[in-house]
């Protein structure tokens, strides 16, 4: 039979974990002799991290795992790590855990993991799902249990009930408990004391304390003996006692001084400290604890440690992220990064007589004339690299143990890249042209600032809408919310007359603009739109998507007129986001041995542009008077 590559404690019984729970004896006895999968660091999402299997053995002290590593690359690497002592601990993933109070009484081990956190001596149970049964037992559906015990190098360290007969075990235990015989005349008090168990030692402590109390009540015997009561009354205190310990003789001397005429306990303590070079803590002669935070002994030191209310990793405070996933999911993904669109404009059918594109009638005997010329519209877009680069100090990665610091920073990088890409698609990059980090609109063409051939820009004149909707006598009935709601709906519907995009577009606006329209009321005070869906139907759009990043965005046109963005109407299926193979979002990591840093690069190389003419509508509010504004 193949010999295991190594053995270790999968878990230990009777072990009180940091969360107060205890793994009960024989909690996993039903799995004695079973084989379970062995993985690296509880990685269940990748078959490459399956490094072997483990045979479980139920023992009186816990569950022992005989570990057999496979010949995969990670299995061979793990074998070398264990052999060299770099990895020294096991952990288990178990589910169907049943609790009775604070004790785990039953469970099923699903896998055994080789883990890096062997230096942590504490026990830990990390449940992921907890249910409550009718009989009061708590059932944790799944948990990772780590005990922190090192791997077993010597088989003699394990005492299975099945490995040695009970009689032999007793003989071995008796042999181990035997001590070199010492003649009774040579035994010291300490030798006799060490033969007592913990309960008996506590009784001795109590008796000594009572005897000392009686002795202190006798004034004549206050300074007869010098003894020290510490953790063990029979320890040699000469080497272990520091200047911060007062012996019983010292205390008796202080009490004797305090009984002298004109002395108090406080003055006696201060006098004794000065005579013997003892430094008293601030306010040591008063009761209670020191409240001054600047002094040693602050009572706040006794307070329990702070605990996170949420998960171990700090919660992220971000901008609105909901619309970003909508944009990146709805744009058309193209395997081509160099995008070209070509259109022939045949809308001017009438034209003049020579350039007319109309079909013509023939008259007998007359020469047939040519139709007019077509107008070709062509645009090309090439890609640009967009990236997020970061570096993590390895010291920080090792020291931060509450959560996965590397994965946490990667998630932040991915969020930043997605937001920057979505902003470039919808609004553009607002950095200056001379900024080397700018995402240029020639590569990722923003819908808002795109050419009029692709994005139609319409100004919403609030004053004109107020005049037309309210008239002269209705100002007291209709507020600004009504004016914005009805006026904006009117503007959007007129703009849709020239819309050439595919399907039904969506409306992207700020949360404030959505609230303004939803809060509009009629003359009777009733809200006009009961829900966002009703408003979307009135606007003739598929859905309304809010983005707080759209707030207070202003565009300057070619005539230096400024326009505040109110919303974009577009079907993002008409926007093509192209990248060739290898240009998709890719994560690169590299370790810099010179600076002891783990470097991370999240990168994509892509292009983006609207591929249909008149496929987007920008609704804006003029900030300053400008020429060339379109009218619906």
Distance between the termini: 86 Å
Helix content: 10-25%
Overall number of strands: 22
Which geometry do the CA atoms define?
Answer: elongated
Low-confidence stretches: 118-136, 154-173, 178-185, 219-243, 625-632
Q: Strands of the biggest beta sheet: in what spatial order?
A: 1-5-4-3-7-6-9
Question: Which strand-content bin applies to the residues?
Answer: 25-35%
Give the helix tally.
Answer: 14
Q: How large, in whole angstroms, is the Cα Rg?
A: 41 Å
The mean pLDDT is 77
Major β-sheet annotation:
7 strands, mixed, barrel
Structural class: alpha+beta
Task: Describe how the helices and strands are arranged.
Layout: E1 6-12, E2 22-23, E3 35-40, E4 50-58, E5 62-69, H1 73-83, E6 89-100, E7 103-115, E8 124-132, E9 138-152, H2 166-177, H3 189-194, H4 198-216, H5 237-240, H6 248-258, H7 265-276, H8 322-330, E10 332-334, E11 339-345, E12 375-381, E13 384-393, H9 394-399, H10 405-426, E14 455-459, H11 462-470, H12 480-495, E15 506-509, H13 511-518, H14 532-539, E16 544-546, E17 554-556, E18 562-570, E19 575-578, E20 586-592, E21 597-610, E22 616-622
Parallel strand pairs: 2-7, 3-7, 10-19, 14-22, 15-16
Antiparallel strand pairs: 1-5, 1-9, 3-4, 4-5, 6-7, 6-9, 8-9, 11-12, 13-21, 15-18, 17-18, 18-22, 19-21, 20-21
Outline the structure in words.
The chain is an alpha+beta fold and about 625 residues long. Among the domains are: about 170 residues, no CATH class; about 110 residues, no CATH class; about 140 residues, no CATH class. It is built from 14 helices and 22 strands. The strands form four sheets. Strands 1-5-4-3-7-6-9 form a seven-stranded mixed beta barrel. α6 packs across α7. The longest helix is centred in the middle third of the chain and has 22 residues. The chain is elongated, with a radius of gyration of 41 Å. It starts with 5 loop residues before the first strand and ends in a 10-residue tail after the last strand. About 20% of the residues are buried. The C terminus is likely disordered.
